[in-house]
Design a protein that fits this description.
The chain is elongated, with a radius of gyration of 33 Å. It has 6 helices and 7 strands. Helices cover 56% and strands 18% of the residues. The chain has a 4-stranded antiparallel sheet. Strands 3-2-6 form a 3-stranded antiparallel sheet, with no helix packed on it. With 198 residues, it is an alpha+beta fold. It starts with a helix and ends with a helix. Strand 4 and strand 5 form a beta hairpin.
Length: 198
């Protein structure tokens, strides 16, 4: 390796001392920028207080019937009743894995009383629908609600204020360092232009 190649490699390497000097030289900008963005995020999370949305659910076991000449048949296939309920009511229906006749019905609203009413109306509609179907069977097990309607006391849209502030702080700090290096790069380019012209 000749002297020119060694010189080129040395010029091309990143000098950590120069980077550190740049950060120390512009530390006031880094601190102010980081604090400003963090302060804005703190103000944002305390001013932005969304209307709390609550969630509630209830479980339903689909009944089944049997005639003399048939095996037991569920009153509804769970994917069929799922689409019917979601179109008719403002609910979400999930089907637990490994079950053929269990529905978990979920409702979300800012008013807990509306959630309870929606879930009770949905369960009543399922039971009424299935009562009609019992006429076609000699023997049946009726559809029933499993347990009570459960409504969470904690809002599902509660912002994670600490996390937002921490992420804002870290992002602002990294961004400020990037801006400092970018500004340093621009100032060196201007110096090089002056030196080549002078």
């Amino acid at each position: 390796m000749n002297k020119d190649e060694v010189k080129y490699i040395q010029e091309d390497e990143i000098d950590l001392r120069d980077l550190w000097k740049t950060i120390v030289k512009r530390k006031n900008f880094i601190i102010l920028f980081t604090l400003l963005v963090t302060l804005i995020s703190v103000v944002y999370v305390f001013i932005k207080n969304p209307i709390p949305i609550y969630s509630g659910n209830v479980m339903v076991e689909i009944g089944e019937g049997r005639s003399n000449d048939t095996n037991q048949i569920y009153f509804d296939h769970n994917s069929n009743i799922k689409s019917i309920l979601e179109k008719r009511f403002e609910v979400e229906v999930s089907l637990p894995k490994g079950t053929n006749n269990i529905l978990i019905i979920t409702s979300k609203n800012k008013d807990k009383n509306i959630i309870k009413k929606d879930l009770n109306n949905t369960v009543s509609a399922i039971i009424t629908r299935h009562k009609e179907k019992t006429k076609f069977f000699d023997d049946y097990i009726m559809t029933k609600q499993i347990g009570e309607v459960k409504i969470n006391n904690n809002a599902i849209n509660k912002p994670k204020k600490k996390l937002i502030v921490i992420v804002s702080f870290v992002t602002a700090f990294i961004l400020s360092i990037f801006i400092v290096f970018f500004l340093e790069f621009i100032s060196k380019m201007k110096e090089d232009d002056k030196n080549t012209q002078g």
